[in-house]
Structures are given as C-alpha cells and as structure tokens.
Design goal:
Distance between the termini: 32 Å
Structural class: alpha/beta
CATH superfamily of the largest domain: Vaccinia Virus protein VP39
Oligomer: single chain
CATH architecture of the largest domain: 3-Layer(aba) Sandwich
Largest sheet: 7 strands, mixed
CATH topology of the largest domain: Rossmann fold
Strand content: 25-35%
Order of helices and strands: HHEHEHEEHEHEEEEHEHE
Number of helices: 8
C-alpha cells in the first residue's frame, strides 16, 4: 500500500473536519465547477468522472445538481466514507476503486468531463508517474471533452518553500477545531504532516502524514498538450474564489 493510500485511508473519517461546513463547501465547489462546465459548452447531461473523489466533496455536490457522476479513488477508506455520505445525501453515484494512472483498466467508457480537485495530481512523486497519470486521464476523456483539476500554487511556494501552512480555526457549538500542516522539503518533494485538533470537553489530536511533489503549472500544461489537448487554460483564485489555481484542458 502506498503512502497516499495510507494517508487517505486514515484521514477519511476526519476529512470533513478540515472544513467549517463540509456540506456547504461541497455545494459551493459544485456550483463553481458547473460554471466552468457551462462555459466549456457542457450542460447537465455531461458524463463526468471524478478520478480522485476522496470522500465525495465535489462528486456529491455535482450529483445533487443532477449530473451523471462516476467517481473513483485509490483509497478504499475514502471510498467507504464517500459511499456513506452519498446515501445520506440521497444521490446516485457509481463508485470504483481505481488508480488514476491506470483508468483504462477500470473504465471501458470515456467521459465528457474528468475532474481531479484538491491537489490530487501532485501526489505523483516522480515525473514519470505524473506523465502516466496525465496520459491516463486524457485517454479517458472524449474528443472535445475537458479535464478540470486544481493544485496548490507551487510556482509561488517554491520561491520560499514554507515550513508550514497557516492554521484554519473553526468555531463550533462544541468548541474550536484547528487544522494546519507542516512541510519538510527535499528539493521539489516535501513531506506533509496534517494536524487536526478538536478542542471540546475532551481534547482530540489527530496527525496524518503524506508526501507531494511541487508541480509547476508549466509542467502540467506541457503534459496535457503532449497528450492531445488543444487548449489548456489556468484560472486563479482572484477570478474563481477557489483556494487553488484551476486547470481546464480541452481534448
């Protein structure tokens, strides 16, 4: 089992604590994605694959808007949490366990839209794995279809290589919930430790570890172009309101 699988298996039941209101965040992100889809010429009838669905943050929000959603992830723990949340939301999503470097081994069909949000692609620690993931995603996208994803702004982060991310402090009716990350750098790789602290009647501290490679936008643009995408654009937080840069690549 990879460090990425272990990370998401272990954090799955805690992941919603990273948000003040996970359900509201999912709805907001779904509305943002719908706006991108519509600008790209797609309506509610588009077939969508969320190939890094995690606990379903975007997939459930999109399904609630009426989209036909298929969702996959490498983490069985995340998928189990996503299935539970899907039942609670009373929406229909087809879930599969799949590595997004090998999507054709799981899916025979191609999709109008493939998404991978929340910094999923930088889990590829080697450039060869990232290239394999991009090819797999492009191959699973229909002609004239689009890929939509988001990554951290590594172009900016690599200038200073910060050792931590600022904390999020959420006030709840039971007390405070605090989440932050520490980063230990080794060239363009970094080890991330995610802390989630719940300060209520009993103090609860959770710690999860993972690794990433700081992926520059130029590298992703070049890879999607090399794999048959005729247009690659980047959208930034000041334009979208989303906390990470978003890539939209048209096949």
């Amino acid at each position: 089992m990879s460090i990425t699988q272990k990370f998401y298996d272990s954090i799955a039941s805690h992941y919603d604590k990273l948000f003040l209101d996970w359900n509201a965040a999912g709805k907001e992100q779904a509305m943002l994605l719908q706006e991108i889809f519509q600008k790209s010429g797609y309506d509610i009838n588009a077939s969508i694959l969320d190939c890094a669905c995690g606990i379903g943050t975007q997939a459930i929000g999109l399904a609630a808007l009426g989209y036909n959603i298929t969702a996959s992830d490498i983490s069985e723990g995340a998928l189990a949490e996503a299935r539970t949340r899907t039942l609670k939301a009373k929406v229909n999503i087809q879930f599969r366990n799949a590595d997004f470097r090998l999507l054709s081994e799981t899916f025979s069909e191609k999709f109008d839209i493939v998404i991978a949000m929340d910094n999923a692609l930088p889990h590829m620690l080697a450039s060869e794995d990232l290239a394999k993931a991009v090819k797999s995603i492009a191959d699973q996208t229909k002609e004239n279809g689009i890929f939509v994803g988001s990554i951290r702004d590594y172009d900016a982060l690599l200038q200073d290589k910060p050792s931590y991310s600022p904390p999020y402090i959420h006030e709840t009716d039971q007390g405070k919930r605090i989440s932050f990350q520490t980063w230990v750098w080794n060239d363009d790789l970094y080890k991330l430790t995610q802390y989630i602290i719940v300060d209520k009647e009993t103090l609860e501290i959770n710690k999860f570890e993972c690794e990433y490679r700081a992926t520059r936008r130029e590298e992703l643009t070049a890879l999607f172009t090399a794999n048959g995408c005729k247009e690659v654009i980047w959208m930034f937080p000041e334009e979208t309101g989303f906390y990470q840069p978003i890539i939209v690549a048209r096949k």
